[in-house]
Design a protein that fits this description.
Mean pLDDT: 89
């Protein structure tokens, strides 16, 4: 059985922004701390998208952070996130367990 990978919100934002366009990494408010090399290292590390899992909490915050830009980029990133989410395994973990 393949290992599953859970990315935190910031890395998931980097993954969606970089997958949309590597040039956006240096311009999006939430990914300016990263560079293309960081994105490519992330891609090499995580392997195929089917190995990723997430939680509703992470996906909600990722959506919020991705949308901190103007249209048409906001819409483009929302569409990219929706497409990406369809490839993820999603696990619900009660918030009280997450904070514990």
């Amino acid at each position: 059985m393949a290992s599953k990978i859970l990315l935190d919100t910031n890395l998931l934002v980097l993954l969606v922004v970089g997958s949309t366009s590597e040039r956006l990494i240096s311009t999006h408010k939430r990914t300016r701390a990263y560079d293309i090399k960081s994105f490519r290292l992330l891609m090499d590390t995580i392997g195929p998208p089917t190995s990723l899992v997430s939680t509703p909490h992470i996906l909600a915050e990722t959506s919020n952070l991705l949308r901190q830009c103007a249209d048409p980029l906001r819409q483009q990133l929302s569409v990219a996130l929706a497409a990406f989410v369809s490839t993820l395994g999603e696990n619900h973990v009660a918030a009280r367990h997450v904070v514990a």
